[in-house]
Amino acid sequence: MPFLHSINFEPCESKKYLKDVFNSILLKDVVKRNKIRDVDLLERIVNYVLNNVGRQFSATSISNFFKQKKRTIAPETILNYLKACEEAFLFKKLSYQDVIGKKSLNVNEKYYVADHGLREAVSGTNFRNKELILENIVCLELIRRGYDVKVGRGSGDKEIDFVCEKSGKKLYVQVCYILNDEKTIEREFASLLDIKDNYPKIVLYKESSFKGNYEGVPAIDIEKWLLERELLTPME
User: pTM of this prediction?
Assistant: First the structure.
């Protein structure tokens, strides 16, 4: 968004501009294009997703959420509204893949916002969700680099944040904010170590006292990963 550069990324002006962009997309590319009548409902669904990026999601769960607010909405309506937002490039939906059986899973998806600046402009800063914000940033970066990205489901209830495929090769990525205590380290690496193929696996972190590799899987500072291309894809 080059206009942000022209205003030197001044926080207040940038937020106002991004909010205007978001509202314009919502009105022109979602509401008008899809002839949506219940704009209030659309805005509520969008805000729900913005505040739950990277969390496991189902239309039924949102329907139940609104039911608690004394409002009945069919899951099909929610899916149609979200599809319209995807087509307007507001959200990116990731499906699940069984990394053990190598199959796509017909289970809940995850949604990520297409630009985190838009999320912050509309929903405000939320530092309680730092790890989810990092996931969102990594997801977008992987897509920009040409990967087909899915969420991985391993053995038991273990989850791999991103299973990335390009040119017939794979990269497995875990994202965490703090990689310090032994329990966290074991949890973040365990899902990757369960995968027995020879494709590269990495854990990205923002803060960590742990350095180097864990049983051959490297831990990489997320800022270095974003800035240095050779750290992005060990396969290349």
Answer: 0.84
The verdict on residue 127 lying in a domain is yes
Distance in angstroms (rounded) separating the CA atoms of residues 75 and 60: 5
Residues 36-94 pLDDT 10s: 999 999 998 998 888 888 888 788 888 888 888 888 888 899 999 999 999 999 999 99
Q: CB–CB of 45/81 below 8 Å?
A: yes
In order, the DSSP letters of 2-46 are HHHHHTTT-HHHHHHHHHHHHHHIIIIIIIIHHT-S-HHHHHHHH
What is the span of the domain harbouring residue 11?
Answer: 2-231
Tell me if 98 is assigned to some domain: yes
- Does residue 236 belong to any structural domain of this protein? no
**From residue 232, how far is each of 164, 180, 197 by CA, in Å?**
11, 22, 19
Q: Write the DSSP symbol of residue 200.
A: -
Order of strands across the sheet with 201-208?
Answer: 56-57, 103-113, 91-98, 148-153, 159-166, 169-179, 201-208, 217-221, 213-214
Are the beta carbons of 159 and 185 closer than 8 angstroms?
A: no
Q: How far is CA 21 from the centre of its chain?
A: 20
CA dist list (Å): 225 to 9, 143, 168, 235: 23, 14, 22, 14
Q: How many domains does the chain have?
A: 1
* Residue 72 resides in a domain: yes
Residue 42: both structure tokens together: 């659309």
CA distance 32 to 36: 7
Q: Please tell me the distance from the alpha carbon of residue 76 to that of residue 73, in angstroms, as a whole number.
A: 8
